[in-house]
Design brief:
The structure holds two protein chains of two kinds. By secondary structure, chain A is an alpha+beta fold. Chain A has helices at residues 4-8, 33-45, 62-73, 87-97, 115-124, 126-131, and strands at 48-52, 54-55, 58-59, 79-82, 104-107, 110-113. Chain A contains six helices and six strands. The longest helix of chain A is centred in the N-terminal third of the chain and has 13 residues, at 33-45. Chain A is globular and about 35 Å long. By secondary structure, chain B is an alpha+beta fold. Chain B has helices spanning 3-13, 48-62, 77-82, and strands spanning 18-25, 31-39, 70-75. Chain B has a three-stranded mixed β-sheet. In chain B, strand 2 (31-39), helix 2 (48-62) and strand 3 (70-75) form a beta-alpha-beta unit. In chain B, helix 1 crosses helix 2. Chain B starts with a helix and ends in a 14-residue tail after the last helix. The chains are: A alpha+beta, B alpha+beta. Chain A binds chain B through residues 98-101, 111-113, 116-117, 120-121, 126, and chain B through 48-49, 52-53, 56, 60, 67-68, 71-73.
Amino acid sequence: MIKMRDLEMTEGKKRDPLKLSDLKEVPESNLDPALKERIEELLCSKEVFLFMKGNPMAPQCGFSANVAGILAQERVDYGHFDILSDMDIRQGLKDYSNWPTFPQLFVKGELVGGNDVISELYSSGELSEILKG
Amino acid sequence: MQPEEVKTLIKGSLSDANVDIFTSDDNMNRHTHYHITVISDAFEGKKLLDQHRIIMDILNEALKVQIHAVKIKTYTHTRAKEQGINFDQNERLRND
């Protein structure tokens, strides 16, 4: 469980929003351009962005809860989006990132990983470095 | 899909791979969760996500397995040696 106290301590260093040009060029896909734009708008809103089931206060899946918990431990300021609230984003993001499961953690618009990868990077200490950008 | 078949599939794509697979049950008592460990130099110098993508792509194309029921662990041969991981001498089907 994530405690309120942990969340309040995530102020960390505040970051400037990204520009669209900061995002990695995504290979051609049949993703609807308007949907792609919505996804990129979300990714630009914070350098660290988590697509999850539920939200950090009330995660709706154990894997999402785990990654939100790790980010709280890392004291990182991040944006998040509940994919259960929007089926278009839920499906579109799978195409955008070419990754089939949630949660998905992005840093500077680039997918770092889902629960397995993030947990392993956290255990090895590499995640802190990646989150610094 | 039997674990042995999955192992053959991965070795078919990554010829230097040592592969260890064990399955665990879901709450319906079906062997649906695959825990896959692969040692291969194909992972050398790649980000962890891209290492996992290599295995996901192999599984994706050949089978329509439930990807969320797969847990992947990847090592290069050098890294596996450092960590003392060598399951070629001990290829029992782990489910203990």
